[in-house]
Amino acid sequence: MTGYRYSLTALLALALSGPAVRAADEALLAAGKRSFAKCQLCHTIEADGPNRIGPNLYGMFARPPASAPGFRYSAAMKAKAGGGLVWDDATLDAYIASPKAIVPGGSMAFAGIAKADERAALLAYLKSVLGSADGN
After folding, report:
1. Cβ contacts of 118 within 8 Å, gap of 6 or more
2. CB contact set of 104 (below 8 Å; sequence gap of 6+)
3. CA torsion sign, 27 to 49 to 100 to 110?
4. 96, 122 contact by CB (below 8 A)
5. Which residues, 6 or more positions from 99, have their beta carbon under 8 angstroms from its beta carbon?
């Protein structure tokens, strides 16, 4: 009977943690949305949204750089795309931290976001609102 009580207690604790996990996820996404305010002057995120100073970001996960239709990319960004770079969590995190370190000679004027937790929140938000090239 002891094992049964332990299992029931564990299941109850797991069930009750659901709202706390959802609240933490919602807080992370809200922080990411606030961080995106730094990006929205230059980028849009809607499907079929316009390019601005920077390209529309919709569908960017799992696709190569310099691939948003109708945007004129720098030669440096095109070279990165030709070199096999693909936008995924790791490359985007590094790029958001320091765009010039990842694409030297690129035209993005944004200096980057130094705080890892802010980048993580921003990426979580972007993943929640953007489609990906592979449909995920």
Report:
1. 31, 35
2. 76
3. negative
4. yes
5. 106, 108, 110, 111, 112
Alpha-carbon gap, residue 35 to 113, rounded angstroms: 9
Please, which pLDDT band fits residue 66 given cuts at 50, 70 and 90? very high
Q: Which domains does the chain have, with CATH numbers?
A: 23-129 (1.10.760.10)
Residue 25 pLDDT grade (very low, low, confident, very high; cuts 50, 70, 90): confident
Q: pTM for the full model?
A: 0.79
d(CA 13, CA 91): 37
Rounded CA-CA distance 90/94 in Å is 6
Handedness of CA 23, 28, 32, 34 (dihedral sign): positive
Residue 2 pLDDT > 50, yes or no? no
Q: What are the beta bridge partners of residue 61? A: 132
* Range 38-55 burial, b when 16+ CB lie within 10 A, else e: ebeeebbbeeeeebeebb
